[in-house]
Design brief:
Helix 3 (about 85-100) crosses helix 7, helix 4 (about 105-115) crosses helix 10 and helix 7 (about 160-175) packs across helix 8. The protein is of the alpha+beta class and about 260 residues long. The strands form two sheets. It has a four-stranded mixed beta sheet. The chain has one domain: Orthogonal Bundle (Lysozyme). A hairpin with a 5-residue loop joins strand 1 and strand 2. The N and C termini lie far apart (about 35 Å). It is about 45% helix and about 10% strand. The protein has helices spanning about 1-15, 75-80, 85-100, 105-115, 135-140, 150-155, 160-175, 180-190, 190-195, 205-225; strands at about 25-30, 35, 45-50, 55, 65, 240-245.
Length: about 260
């Protein structure tokens, strides 16, 4: 156990803080869409939150967060907590979480990071829907073309999309028990990439930034759940969408993008 813990600590240190101090920058465009990043990509991006969220490899719980909770800015909190599609699909998230032994906060965090709650989202490489699932991943879990609908069309259904994603996350937690940062990295880059780098977060800027974002968003939803804030949130005005911009995505090797873009 001590050796494993030492390896995990060394793994985290080797990332030079990639999963910690997850600052979030963003801006709202003229169409009301919100763009978020873990870096200030240009002058439009303003600091929304300074965070120290990190996945706890001591595993107090399957997806425990280490670090002091720092409330997000009101603007970021509104976008994450008041989006109309979050309420619309929340029952599906809770059902899938219960079925596959996951925390709803984790599914919400991934949905926010992947699609900004947009069920019609399609990535340039073909990842589909709320959780940005690749058709190949869906086929791996038994989704087949039927009734004149292709696998891609079936994945556009929110319930199917969320269930496939939850099953995949369940399997990743079994593959990397007690290592939630590797579960999230695998969801982004594929478990093959994580295994290629000897069960560490791959050195892809996109993946490192993705782990940061999901940790921060997970912390937000976990705290909201504990405080009972989700049920009390008012409906969002204008139905603004969140457009996630994750720096470094273009550098992700094509061979490691079998899950999504």
């Amino acid at each position: 156990m001590r050796t494993l813990r030492s390896l995990l600590v060394a793994s985290c240190l080797s990332l030079a803080g990639a999963a910690a101090h997850a600052d979030i920058y963003g801006y709202v465009d003229a169409q009301g869409g919100a763009h978020f990043s873990t870096e200030k990509l240009d002058e439009r991006y303003k600091l929304y939150a300074r965070g120290d969220a990190d996945f706890d490899t001591e595993q107090r719980s399957p997806f425990a967060i280490d670090g002091e909770h720092k409330p997000l800015s009101p603007a970021l909190s509104r976008h994450l907590g008041e989006h109309p599609n979050l309420k619309k699909f929340e029952h599906l998230l809770h059902a899938a979480a219960s079925e596959f032994g996951l925390q709803p906060a984790l599914l919400k965090a991934i949905m926010a990071a992947e699609s900004g709650f947009n069920p019609a989202a399609v990535s340039p490489k073909g990842a589909i829907g709320l959780m940005q699932v690749m058709p190949a991943t869906a086929e791996r879990y038994g989704v087949q073309a039927a009734a004149k609908k292709s696998v891609a069309q079936r994945l556009a259904d929110p319930q199917t999309n969320i269930r496939v994603s939850a099953r995949y996350l369940r399997d990743l937690t079994r593959l990397f028990p007690g290592q939630p940062e590797l579960v999230i990295a695998s969801y982004n880059a594929g478990e093959g990439a994580v295994q290629k780098y000897r069960n560490t977060i791959p050195p892809y800027p996109e993946t490192r930034n993705y782990v940061k974002l999901v940790a921060q968003f997970y912390q937000f939803y976990r705290m909201a759940t504990e405080q009972g804030a989700t049920a009390a949130l008012p409906a969002a005005k204008g139905g603004r969408r969140i457009h996630m911009t994750i720096p470094g995505r273009a550098s992700l090797p094509a061979a490691m993008t079998t899950r999504h873009e």
